[in-house]
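During the second half of the funding period, the structural biology subgroup turned its attention to how the target accommodates small molecules. The most pressing case was pyridoxal-5'-phosphate, which had performed well in the primary screen but for which no bound structure existed. We therefore specified the complex as follows and requested a full 3D prediction, including the ligand pose.
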Amino acid sequence: MQEAVLRTIEEDYVAGRAGSQRLYAEATAVFPSGVTHDSRYFRPFPIYIAHAAGARKWDVDGNEYIDYRLGHGALMLGHGHPAIVRAVQEQVALGTHYGASHELEVRWGQLVQRLVPCADVVKFTSSGTEATMMALRLARAATGRAKVAKFAGHFHGWHDHLNRGITTPYELPSSVGVPDALQALLVVLPPNDVAALRAALAAREIAAVILEPSGGRGGVVPTAPGFLEALRQATRETGTVLIFDEVVTGFRLSPGGAQALYGVTPDLATFAKALVGGLPGGAVAGRRALFAPLAFGADAERNRRSRVAHPGTFNANPLSAAAGVAALTAYLDGSVHRHTDRLSELLREALQERLRRRGVAGVVWGGNAILHIGLGLDADRAAVESGQIPGDVLEHSVGGPRAAHLRRACYVHGVDLPAPNTMLSVAHAEADVEVTARAFDAAVARCQGEGVL
Ligand SMILES: Cc1ncc(COP(=O)(O)O)c(C=O)c1O
């Protein structure tokens, strides 16, 4: 009798994806390592998606995936939500760029004001990176201070000003090519450490403290209870601008973002992703006084010498504004978030239970439409969420070759379950959670079979 030949996870991944493999071979001749975003780099090659709908997407080989990546977190409403499709289709026929002001940008800004507690004033940018860049510029203009502070493990986009302390080792810049002179202006603080924060702010040399309010990398390293309040107090006492980077948490953790959920109001907040319903764009919102340097006055000399400049070809472009208005309107009554909150908890419990039953050490934490899967972690969720586990331990548990292997196995079983953030949308249903849990279970079992877990 012939013995059954069992394929490895990687062999299965490759066998079902000849089209993606071919495209990747072409892509490597066009782009460095074949990809257009660092996080899309994947061994042996990434999947190439042909179309998507609701909570699902299909690759060029016809494989179907339940999608928890959701446009890097942009798709709070899932793929092809009817309100977004309608808004964009109507707008594309009316014009994609007027090189002029238009009504939809006003409506979009008004919705931000209505939803976000700190948003006295709003300015649109073309991405989250641009939003954090502008927030720093406003803070520096307001305070006349050059230094800025961030926290180890927090990510704020890819510009040069916040280019350190993102992944371990935190003392290394995340990229070469950034002048040392700029690194000298950046202070990286340990998260959740009030004493270190107070010591850093005491000299009143720091223009702004920026952080991801739910914790580094979308909440992988959670902010400890009470820390945001202490941070608010310390920044107020020292005349330091407090910036919440809500590019991930904004309109995702609640209709008003993390600041509405936690009841702590920053001076400035940055947004992108769920702000725009799947199209490109970003925004800075905040206290009116901080935006005053952006305003034009009657005095041309003052405009030339004392303004914060803000050009940007695609700021509030009509297509993004149309999608943004549709998305924010959908968030208004809270029903989207009630659904995603409930589902994310169901998914967290289901995945945790599968790890437990398989005897795999690991913790699933987070909530409010984002969760994280830490492999090899021997802790409980409460300890992780209250900030008791060191950030580097948490980071290692969500990343690395073991997590990548599990992800590959999940692809083979029909789920795109990305690290560090697994995201939910209103298009996901309870049945998807069940299918995901079964796929996850099969993927874990195969990783165990290969000695990876
Ligand atoms: C917290 C945070 N801030 C800023 C950014 C940068 O946003 P963008 O990719 O739109 O430039 C990201 C991107 O993932 C982010 O997660």
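Two results from this model are relevant to the next phase. The pocket of pyridoxal-5'-phosphate is lined by residues 72, 127-129, 132, 155-157, 212, 245, 247-248, 272, 282 (CB under 6 Å). The mean pLDDT is 96.
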